[in-house]
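Re: that chain you flagged

S.,

Sorry for the slow reply, it's been a week of failed gels. I finally had a moment to sit down with the sequence you sent. For the record, here it is as I used it:
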Amino acid sequence: MKQNSLSEFGTIRSFLWPIYGHEMRKFVPMLLMLFFISFNYTILRNMKDAVVVTNAGAEVIPFIKVWTLLPIAILLTVVFNKLSDFFSQENAFYMMVSGFLIYFALFAFLLYPYRDSFQPLQSANYLESILPRGLKGMVSMYRHWTLTSFYVFSELWGTFILSVSFWGFANEVTKLGEARRFYSVFSISANFAGIAAGQTSNLFLGNGIFNPNLPYGNDAWEQTMMGLFFVVFIGGFITIGLFWWLNRNIFDQPKYESLHTGEKETKKHKKKLTLRESFAYLSKSKYLLCIAVMVVSYNLVINLVEVVWKDQLRVLHPSPSEYNHYINNLSIIMGIISTLSAVFMAKIINWFGWTKTALVNPIFVLITSVGFFGFLVLNNLGFTAVQIADVSPVAIAVFFGSAQNIISKATKYTFFDTTKEMAFIPLEHDIKLKGKAAIDGVGSRFGKSGGSLIHQSLLIVFSSLSASAPYVGLIILSVCSMWIVATKSLGRRFAEYNKDKEPIAATLN
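Prediction finished late last night. Pasting the structure tokens below so you have them in one place:
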């Protein structure tokens, strides 16, 4: 029986459940682990946006990402590496998950209920009086340090528990033949987790009325948060329990010993390119440069739009409960679109080809950006009377921003990542490995950090996100144009490969 054959499953099962019966004891616990980790991440991500944006303002986000999130991510990377050196992978996993759950318990029972007592009011007021208005976000980051810490740890749950811990573990214990079948179902499970998390959060929000009979919470929103934290704790404990069961009943078998050893030895000899080496390598090939422009553009645009959109969303939904309810609904829609995209991705590429499929993201981002910033500028210029069906320009702008957020993120792991990874296939083996390392290193780093630094620079000049929004819009339009040009150029070169069936050399231009 071949592990990678799908013909025996049938058409529907090959899409939704290409798993053999003897693999269930291994696959199902891993599937549930991914579900609960992703479920927790969606709940935490939606909560931290509602808490931080409505209390400290959206202008605080660029400062958090650069001056708090990045340093703590580096610190936790060092901690994780040290744990991996001194402890087994199993114990390192327990320590990382437990550490995050302990922090969330501390935030839920101490830091958030007594957040006003922890604010450094005197020093924060002094900094606000001497610093330019454009640095208000940095002062807010300091003033609301308890909320800042929650934003950081909620975001890093996705990095260290989902990406590093779970996927590192999954890649180590899953064979290539299994991965071709397992990972498609994993993707569907993670998308369903987003839908379930959105529904669960809305269930706890209820009608937004304070319940005096509950022994916790000073208002309705605090009671909602406490309920959601209990859900996160349950999901975390279930994840730990599933991981413990797998290590005691599945991965203690001799057949997995060589898999663990082999993967670790491979990682030891893997060389990571420096930033300078990445640039030097990308400059050798226009083909690789096109892929790099796509990756940088995606990350840059998403980070630029998201901050302005969240600022306007706060105007439309100023209370944490309303804000969280709106974000939860977006998570549900995003999960549905992501699931459908994952199921039909292969068919879509066959129907429309590589170039048209790859152009879905930049074209949609461009259209929604024009709508978002267009109505935002109308509102800033005082055209509040310009309404469509009694809907204000702010509401219409938020709609376009929401549409962009949903589609761009929902299709990230399908349209964008699939076409990007396909573009590496024609390259020669050495070019493929080094080029991917260079692009992954440069793309995410420049896109995410670059977006935050652009916002910080514009805030120093214009003092507010709404005032700087037109200039952010112009930057995004320019980036989207480069993204589309790079995608079309790459599509032509990719089509040449399909015609010739020859590996593309490093000197391609």
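What I noticed first: DSSP finds 19 helices and no strands in the chain.

Talk soon,
D.
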